[in-house]
Amino acid sequence: MQIIRDYKYVDPEDRGASAAIGNFDGVHIGHQSVIDLARKACPDAPLGVLTFEPHPREYFAPDAPPFRLMRGNARAHRLEKLGVQKLYELPFNAALAGLTPEEFARNVICKGLGLAHVVIGADFCFGKGRSGTAQDMVQFGQQMGFGVTIAPLMQQSDHVVSSTAIRQALSDGRPRDAAAMLGHWHRIEGEVIGGEQRGRELGFPTANMSIEGIHPPKFGVYAVLVDVLDGPHAGSYHGAASVGVRPMFHGEVPNIETFLFDFSGDLYGATLSVGLVEFLRPEMTFDGLDALIAQMTEDCDSARKILAAT
């Protein structure tokens, strides 16, 4: 998959794509349906996605609590798995935010990227002040010569599938409900960083990763599926992970610490993708290290049984 980040300087071979437009946070089943419509609209054109980095909500409210389901690199990995060939990941800045809906359609979609067709959700808004609607995009497409498809909102039971609903499921400790809306396990992706090595001292060496900038799931212990994406230990593993602030050791900054079953090796600097499968228990403190070790052993036994049946 090729990533294009400047709509003003686009090579001729990167033009003419059929692209889905949106933020695609989580790349849930609703997003996937929009991408599939783009694939079907112009089967002979490259399949593209037009999105933004940072997320516009981050740009307009930089001090708001983290809300993203995935960082930009994790989103790119997921889109590549779906067969996206051209990822137009445009920097969201004052210049882009200041474009009127017509300027966005003309300068970005038509002249800049030269898209043959675009697919947008029924609730899509664009341009300065989010003043452009999906119907406006249809009119601009007719005037400027690109096709437009409006995708209906995806529903599951009586609820619209949305990033907001997925965030709520994760906050409630319901990763399977989140996965049903995502179409895949919710994954936390990042580089393994140095920790205090307490897990190693307790007999449970963990791979530590930051969760800064993403929506935190319910703090506690999870059964997880782990993909090591690079390095000598690349592959898939089962494990148990703790998400939170480590109250037993008076931690303050939330992170995720993952213990890989039946694994031996150094993961520092490797990129991990940790999929949350089932919430086992909340964070808690214990009367000493022996009680903590006993609980961690029980957590791992539970996780093994759950993952064996998954």
UniProtKB/TrEMBL annotation:
- What's a single GO MF annotation on this record? ATP binding
- Coiled-coil regions listed in the entry: none
Any one Pfam family here would be FAD_syn
- Residue ranges of every copy of the Riboflavin kinase domain listed in the record: 181-308
Query: What's one GO BP annotation on this UniProt entry?
Result: riboflavin biosynthetic process
Its pathway?
Answer: Cofactor biosynthesis; FMN biosynthesis; FMN from riboflavin (ATP route): step 1/1; Cofactor biosynthesis; FAD biosynthesis; FAD from FMN: step 1/1
The Enzyme Commission number assigned here is: 2.7.1.26, 2.7.7.2
Q: Extract the InterPro entries matched here.
A: FAD_synthase (IPR015864), Riboflavin_kinase (IPR023468), Riboflavin_kinase_bac (IPR002606), Riboflavin_kinase_bac/euk (IPR015865), Riboflavin_kinase_dom_sf (IPR023465), Rossmann-like_a/b/a_fold (IPR014729)
Keyword annotations for this protein, in alphabetical order, are: ATP-binding, FAD, Flavoprotein, FMN, Kinase, Multifunctional enzyme, Nucleotide-binding, Nucleotidyltransferase, Transferase
Q: What is this protein called?
A: Riboflavin biosynthesis protein
* Record field: catalytic activity: FMN + ATP + H(+) = FAD + diphosphate; riboflavin + ATP = FMN + ADP + H(+)
Q: Provide the family line.
A: Belongs to the ribF family.
What organism is this sequence from?
Answer: Ruegeria intermedia
Q: Which Gene3D superfamilies match?
A: HUPs, Riboflavin kinase-like
**Job description of the protein:** Catalyzes the phosphorylation of riboflavin to FMN followed by the adenylation of FMN to FAD.
